Amino acid sequence: MGILVSLTKVERRMNLHDYMAQLRQEIDQYLILLIKTSTDAPVLNEAMLYSVENGGKRIRPVLLLMMLEAFGIDHKNGMVAACALEMIHTYSLIHDDLPAMDNDDLRRGKPTNHKVYGEAVAILAGDGLLTDAFLALVEDDNLSADIRVKLVRALSMLAGSSTGMIAGQVLDIDAEKNPVELNTLKRIHHLKTGRLIEFACLAAGMIAKQNDEIMASLSEYAHHLGLAFQIQDDILDIEGDTDKIGKPVGSDVANNKSTYVSLLGLVGAKEMLASEIEAALAVLVKLPADTKLLKQLTLYVANRDS
Amino acid sequence: MGILVSLTKVERRMNLHDYMAQLRQEIDQYLILLIKTSTDAPVLNEAMLYSVENGGKRIRPVLLLMMLEAFGIDHKNGMVAACALEMIHTYSLIHDDLPAMDNDDLRRGKPTNHKVYGEAVAILAGDGLLTDAFLALVEDDNLSADIRVKLVRALSMLAGSSTGMIAGQVLDIDAEKNPVELNTLKRIHHLKTGRLIEFACLAAGMIAKQNDEIMASLSEYAHHLGLAFQIQDDILDIEGDTDKIGKPVGSDVANNKSTYVSLLGLVGAKEMLASEIEAALAVLVKLPADTKLLKQLTLYVANRDS
User: Fold this and answer.
1) Calpha distance B103→A273 (Å, rounded)
2) Inter-chain contacts counted by CB atoms under 8 A, chains A and B
3) Which residues of B touch A159 (CB under 8 A)?
4) What single-letter DSSP state applies at residue B78?
5) ipTM for this prediction
6) Which residues of A touch B169 (CB under 8 A)?
7) What is the pTM of this model?
8) Distance in angstroms (rounded) separating the CA atoms of residues B153 and B134
9) Which residues of chain B are within 8 Å of residue A44 when distances are taken between CB atoms?
């Protein structure tokens, strides 16, 4: 048995993409279990599932599960937290796509939630995913009450209004109307993208009962990875393939949106990406964890084509 | 000291309205503390505070605190849960008022959130209150981790998508387009209004560590009180005073909305109200608690003019 497990681990290390695909499959299956059926409002369920099933790379939950494995804990212990995180991410996309916000018709190549179900149901589907994410977290009987409280606290703070994702959304709306400087752009992405990536890392640290110093390192790693993720997004808007990224290439330019590319140029943005990836890897090296796979994941973020 | 406390209790019993006013004042002050400031997105804070401060009767948090006192527990122990409940209620009103939903311009006589801050910020202010309500609950260090987990579980389930408030909102949207039968109307209000009233009662029971049998009675009481609350709302739409109820009298009739009055007539609705209040009082009597004030509160719900 021990040999089998070791072999599996070696195999995983040999192929990040296969391992990611395997985790994604587990996440997809578990997510569907967590979206509860409602005999009262089946259309609401359907709308919630529609967006959850139109999943992308599942970077956030995959990161959480890989970080947990890096600390030597079976990733199954983080499955609920990983799915709750993805539910929060999905709700934020549904609300972000609404006519009053980004007014997007397509998300990952498919009609956005409100295009299929109407605005009212889309707003409520977002509210439902947000609310049910916390329900999932506290119903995870595998974890102690103390850890569940910590997870709810971290997720609600990092996704919340004060210094969390929602604050980032508000800043982002402003930034779409007015050009912003580099520091503001970094702050927006720290909040809007980085905070949920931070939850992925911190949740793993909480479940693996890591100390404050390591938790601080996890936040630092997430900060750099989040920025790298966003810079690569901006680069893909210039150099990407419309079919792969699921939205028209050049839409940021068309919308006059401030991006790392518009502020630094393509070469400057690539330099900043390299520097953020380097900083992220430097934090990883210091962690008392088996971070080989995470190193590959970090590099993948910088080189992905979608 | 004992005498002073007793005197205060007697005084409270003598005047429900003064006691409610005192609790409301405490709730209002505490709510403002819980809406965290955000240096990143001050307009979001402002929008959240705007709707929270345009508070109504605070029936839900007052009920929670009174129920707690009935079980002999200082109401201060329920203040955070009471405020979290009011934050959830307030978020639901902000989203409910949106153009895609009820499209209301006025709420309690003041412009609705999106009329002041625009739709995008209003959606995010709702998301913020919803998320921060859970943050408040888990940050309540006065309660054990076990009780906090129970509270988050109850609030997310009762406000959630499966058999909670959000399912009721979806049903309500359908009902505005098509006339519904009495049983459907009752189901809508059980979910949309009753569920948060149920949280008020259950949260008090959880904090006061009541057994399953009593928790079931609390749900039953809340069910009847919630229906009574809604029936009186419908009656006020016919017999109320526009200035007092904060919206035009007769708006349900104008919108062809199915109500207890449209389905049962004014006399029939009043009979049903009396019967729900009677059923609620019958449950109260069985509770091992000092329910004199709650009896007055129950009667007040049936007789309020706003």
Assistant:
1) 44
2) 175
3) 131
4) G
5) 0.94
6) 124
7) 0.94
8) 10
9) 161, 166-167, 170
